[in-house]
Amino acid sequence: MADYPFTAADLEALRAWDTPTICNALEVVAAHRRGYGFTVRPMTAVDPTLKPICGLARTGTQRAAFPSGRAKEADKAMRVAWYEYVADAALPTVVCLQDLDDTPGVGAFWGEVNSAVHQGLGAQGVVTNGSVRDLDMFAPGFQGIAGVVNPSHAHVHIVALNLDVTIHGMQVKHDDVVHADRHGAVVIPHDVVTKIPAAVDLLTRKEKVILDMVKTKGFNVQMLKQALSQSEDIH
After folding, report:
1. Residue 3 counted as domain residue
2. Cβ–Cβ under 8 Å, residues 170 and 40
3. Domain range for residue 221?
């Protein structure tokens, strides 16, 4: 197993904040990534009330518009290989599955069965540009962040595993740390995972000055300028 500069507890701690807050913190601790590393198109959450997910990426690709062209046994072998790959992790995972079809989402890999299976294998959820279904029967607590909701399997099959993928503009590779919720997803560089909490605390203190001032009776532009100046002085 690989060594990581963070623990399961560090990843769990990041689930306390929504994904936009994580993105804000990354602007502090990894400013060079301000314009990339996150999804840039609308996504659907199977259960918007669930807390965010955060784990090591398990990456793969799928298609569904047409049969795989492989023998039945080859399809089965690929499915088993996929499950073995997802299960081979020392920390919680987030599955990142890219749908390669010209129209992503023709067939859903994710529903009642695969949400339960992947949860059992240690995954907290999935981020995909493809589709989800069985929304009321998803494994409780397993999150699906998807591009489409669709009723059918069609010819869904795994194409490849453990490779670089792109999901709605977010480039992900095996073992990246991925944080996701109903807003979308973001990749957190390994070397800043443990720096996120302090950055969130800093930004919260900076924002509090402004938010408190806004609630003050007689709030005006001059008061806003004062709050902005005070916020800038917080380090």
Report:
1. no
2. yes
3. 197-232
Q: Domain count of the chain? A: 2
Residues 62 and 170 grouped into a single domain? yes
Q: Is 138 helix (H, G, I), strand (E, B) or coil?
A: coil
Question: Could you tell me which residues are beta bridge partners of residue 61?
Answer: 98, 160
Distance in angstroms (rounded) separating the CA atoms of residues 49 and 119:
18
Tokens 């869904």 -> residue: 156
| Residues ≥6 apart with Cβ < 8 Å to 12 | 54, 92
Establish if 2 belongs to a structural domain: no
- Nearest Cα neighbor of 122 from 46, 50, 56 is 56
Token pair of 1, please?
A: 């197993």
Q: Are 143 and 15 in contact (CB under 8 A)?
A: no
Residue 20: what pLDDT? 98
Q: Convert the pLDDT of each residue in 54-93 to its tens digit.
A: 999 999 999 999 999 999 999 999 999 999 999 999 999 9
- Alpha-carbon distances of 93 from 96, 124, 136, 145, 188, rounded to whole Å: 9, 6, 23, 14, 13
What's the predicted TM-score (pTM) here? 0.95
Are 188 and 201 found together in one domain? no
